[in-house]
Design goal:
Blueprint (H helix, E strand, L loop, with lengths): L18 E2 L9 E6 L13 H12 L7 E5 L15 H29 L5 E7 L1 H14 L6 H7 L3 E7 L11 E3 L10 H4 L27 E4 L23 H5 L3 H13 L8 H18 L10 E4 L4 E6 L5 E6 L7 E4 L7 E5 L5 E11 L4 E11 L6 E15 L2 E12 L5 E3 L4 E2 L7 E6 L13 E9 L8 E12 L7 E10 L1
Parallel strand pairs: 1-3, 2-3, 2-4, 4-5, 5-7, 6-7, 8-14
Antiparallel strand pairs: 9-12, 10-13, 11-12, 13-14, 15-16, 16-20, 17-21, 18-21, 19-20, 21-22
């Protein structure tokens, strides 16, 4: 899951020159936390590894005028290969290494945020391979309610501009966020195969759930770069169907050696600065830089146009933390049906708009801060009409299985999603349900005949879902409401949601 050869990538000359920081260093505009891949050391690009360092330099290259720091997460980054991971003892070492990385990431934030929150410091998480798993799991700790790190998450998330997970072993099928590179949305990382044979983590476990989409931290800030048939992040695409445990037994039995070797080669070379996937890493980092500049614009910066739906609410973040804001006032004429708010501690200062008809409006505001400074911000909002809903579900089937999946019986649900009217729609291939979104699992199985990632009229996209039953639930009836969302290509947000009621009987 990593490489050890060192390759130093120069910083982008036109952007910011990132400097190394620690928990007590002077505050920056943004600090990028990096976690290297398996077997990499501090000699590999200051502990980022060439893959995450490529992300850092691409990010900094688009942050001219900003102070950018970087922090190397100090964790073992235990070496890993298919042979060593077949032993339970070494799997424990490997997942203890990940736990250490998550702990060190959160510890740095715990120490850093109280010192620098009044100065508006923001953060970005980057990692490759094992390092991507570290950052994915750290994100879960920050976003979950009623955990040790929930309060920290409330402070960090408004300032967390993005996560860049490169070749992530914790990748979830149809996880949402911003998938990049050639791996299909339905693929998933190697951890979910390894879990079947006890490849578990003692403390900071991942969740088989979509990337969290929360107020002030949308899932679009999570970027996953994964090349098709990568050994670690796209293990579901390996041709290992001869095995009843097809995603892991190949490692135990050392079969299909050529397929494994090719998948390992993709993982270990494609994300280097000269690799086939380098452009995707750089593009993801550039997207995060755009978010950083939008959330913390310099004086006089014009923000990108924000799309919003008629009848819905669009929001522009004017300052990341209302703790620092004294007031917000209009410089342009006030926009009808718009409000400006100075926010409050950990809640951003915002401009919100509820349009009643399509069109574009320009705005400019002045944000005055408690330290006596001010910032003038200009931008535009564009309202789009809401197309008529056009999704429906057909061919719904449920089946209870008496076989055991691990220690438990299970039920399966299959259905197709079709579009009944012609519109510019892009349904999300990842689904959730209202009752138990963290544990229920949905998988896209096909139907995009022309590969354009649009649900065309005449196509039927097929889905499969699995629900585990506990041994204490004989004769039980369950209900689920599957939520199927769809966007169009304007980026203005979800315009329709299909609710699919499902009844399961054991």
């Amino acid at each position: 899951m990593g490489i050890t050869a060192s390759a130093v990538v120069p910083a982008h000359a036109a952007g910011a020159d990132p400097i190394k920081v620690g928990s007590t260093s002077p505050c920056q505009d943004v600090v990028v936390l990096g976690a290297q891949g398996s077997g990499q050391t501090y000699a590999d690009n200051n502990g980022f590894g060439p893959e995450a360092w490529l992300g850092l330099t691409a990010y900094a290259g688009h942050m001219e005028g900003y102070e950018v720091g970087y922090y190397t997460v100090p964790y073992p980054s235990a070496p890993a290969d298919p042979i060593s991971l077949t032993t339970r003892q070494y799997r424990q070492t490997f997942f203890d290494s990940i736990d250490s990385g998550v702990y060190e990431t959160l510890k740095f934030l715990e120490q850093r945020v109280p010192r620098c929150q009044d100065e508006g410091e923001h953060y970005v998480l980057m990692g490759y391979s094992q390092g991507a798993m570290v950052m994915h799991r750290a994100l879960w700790q920050l976003t979950q309610p009623k955990t040790k790190y929930s309060a920290l998450g409330g402070q960090v998330l408004p300032r967390l501009d993005g996560v860049l997970a490169i070749a992530d072993g914790d990748r979830v099928a149809n996880q949402g966020g911003v998938p990049m590179d050639t791996a299909g949305d339905g693929g998933y990382g190697i951890w979910w195969g390894g879990a079947a044979v006890g490849a578990t983590s003692a403390k900071y476990k991942p969740l088989k759930a979509p990337i969290p989409n929360l107020p002030y931290w949308p899932a679009t800030r999570f970027h996953s770069v994964c090349h098709a048939k990568d050994l670690v992040c796209d293990a579901s695409n390996l041709d290992l169907s001869y095995s009843s445990n097809k995603y892991w037994n190949a490692f135990l039995q050392a079969r299909n050696a050529s397929t494994i070797a090719a998948a390992k080669e993709i993982h270990e070379s494609y994300y280097w600065p000269t690799g086939d996937s380098a452009a995707y890493v750089q593009s993801a980092a550039t997207n995060i830089a755009k978010t950083s500049k939008a959330l913390n614009p310099k004086t006089g910066t014009k923000l990108p146009t924000v799309p919003v739906r008629v009848g819905q609410k669009g929001m522009v973040t004017l300052a990341p933390d209302g703790r620092d804001v004294l007031s917000v006032q209009w410089l342009s004429n006030p926009i009808p049906n718009a409000e400006i708010s100075p926010g409050m501690p950990t809640i951003p200062a915002t401009l919100t708009w509820s349009p009643t008809s399509p069109g574009i409006v320009d705005y400019s505001v002045r944000v005055s801060f408690t330290d006596g400074t001010s910032k003038d911000i200009a931008g535009a909002l564009q309202a789009f009409a809401i197309p008529a809903p056009s999704l429906s579900a057909v061919n719904l089937q449920t089946q209870y299985s008496t076989a055991l999946d691990g220690n438990y019986p299970y039920s399966t649900v299959t259905f197709d999603v079709v579009r009944t009217a012609d519109s510019d729609s892009t349904p999300l291939k990842g689904f959730s349900d209202r009752e138990d979104p963290a544990t229920d699992f949905y998988s896209y199985t096909g139907g995009d005949a022309n590969g354009n990632n649009l649900l065309d009229v005449g196509e039927a996209w097929s889905y499969w879902a699995k629900f585990d039953w506990g041994p204490w639930e004989p004769g039980t009836v369950r209900t689920r409401t599957v939520l199927v969302s769809a966007n169009d290509t304007t980026g203005a947000g979800a315009w329709t949601e299909l609710e699919l009621p499902v009844t399961l009987t054991r």
